[in-house]
Every structure is written in C-alpha cells, then in structure tokens.
Design a protein that fits this description.
229 residues; six-stranded mixed β-sheet; four-stranded antiparallel β-sheet; alpha/beta; single chain; Rossmann fold
Length: 229
C-alpha cells in the first residue's frame, strides 16, 4: 500500500543564520489512518503541517504526498494537488462574513472550475453529510462556534479529498463543541478519509488511534512504532 504521506529525513530551516524548524523527520501515514501530531507551542507542528500540506517545501530530505515527490512539482502542480487531494481545516474558521453557508462551502471548489450551480449542489451534499442540512442559508454570524467549524470542515471535504489536515480544529471551541468536532472527524475517517490532526491538546490526541509527538522539530514518540516493536 502506498503511503498518503511519506517523509524521509525532511528538514526545514529559515533565515541566515538558519533557524531549524524541522530537523530530519521521517514518517509514513497510510490511507485510512487517523493520526494526531502533538507537541507544545514552538515544537515544529505548524512547519510539519505546512510541509505535509505542500504549503512549504523542505530544504532537505524528500517528501512524497499521495505518491508525488513535492520537489518534482511546480507551483501550479502543487496548487492542483492541494485543490483536489488535500482538505484543510484551521483553528480560525476563515469563513466569509455575509456569505451563506452553502456559498462558503462551494468556495472550496473554486479551483475545480465547476459552474456555480454544480458547486452549490456539492456544497449542499457536504453540509448534509456533516449534519448542517438545516443551516444551508445561514451566515457565519448566525452560527455557533461549533457550527462554523463544521462549515469549515464541509468546505474542506466538499471535493472528497483523500487527505484531511486539521490544525487545532477544536482550539476556539468549548469542550462540548470540541468533542462534537472530534466525533465528526471520526465519522469522516470511518468513511475512508485519512485524517491528520495537529494539536497541543494531549487529551484530544489520546482519543485518536495513532499519536505522534514532536519536539524541537523532531519526532520523539510514535505510538505506531511502539505497537509494532
């Protein structure tokens, strides 16, 4: 089975003199996995997310996403990879105020070049999939925090990408709403989506099948390796 994510001694440094944010990470994540990457602030989680999501390129090592070597792709090809193969969910919901829920989700298909009516039909389907079929025409200011995060998740999965990256998806939510979002991510994973959650929340990470701890830009623990040891 080909990994969805395969990193081999991936490094990322910034500036002169260089500041190392990712210090030689080797990691494989396979289709259908549900993984937490956990670590304190400044541990390198966000850098790793950017590398996995092809928002940044490594300065050393090799990174394959969905079987493609990032180093072989130009910016246009990377944009296409993100548009069709990767869904992103962030702590900040990044919804357009004054725009209906349906159109916020439909915006997730802009790069696909589909007509608006088709994008809206897919948005309605995605919203029903995550339990917001009754909020199709509401605007963000009419939704709770948990509902807004659900809209953001619907936008991320509207194109049915095989990989979903969630960066602190419960960070702005109370405990009940956060637990509901984790349950939703479990449901999406059960339907076949590979889910990677970046978090500093050890309690959230403990609820996920595989936990990878990162510190100072390095993996210091991987529960999958412990199981296989």
């Amino acid at each position: 089975m080909t990994p969805v994510i395969s990193l081999d001694n991936v490094q990322r440094s910034y500036g002169h003199p260089p500041v190392v944010a990712c210090a030689g990470v080797s990691l494989q994540i396979y289709p259908g996995e549900f993984v937490a990457i956990v670590g304190p602030s400044g541990s390198g989680k966000s850098t790793l997310l950017n590398l996995i999501g092809t928002l940044d390129r490594p300065t050393g090592g090799t990174a394959h996403i969905d079987g493609l070597n990032i180093a072989d792709l130009d910016d246009r090809s990377l944009s296409a990879l993100r548009a069709y193969r990767i869904g992103f969910v962030f702590q900040q919901f990044h919804l357009a105020e004054g725009v209906s829920t349906v159109d916020n989700v439909a915006d997730g298909l802009l790069y696909a070049g589909e007509p608006l009516n088709q994008r809206r039909r897919q948005a309605v389907s995605a919203l029903k999939r995550i339990g917001l079929g009754h909020r199709l025409h509401h605007r963000p200011n009419q939704l709770s925090g948990g509902e807004r995060q659900r809209v953001a998740i619907a936008r991320a999965v509207v194109g049915n990408p095989p990989l979903l990256l969630a960066d602190e998806p419960t960070g702005n939510l109370d405990s009940a709403a956060g637990a509901a979002i984790v349950d939703l991510l479990h449901e999406l994973n059960a339907q076949g989506t590979t889910v990677v959650v970046i978090t500093h929340d050890n309690d959230l990470a403990a609820r996920l099948p595989r936990r990878i701890a990162i510190r100072d830009g390095r993996i210091v623990r991987d529960s999958a390796q412990e199981i296989n040891a």
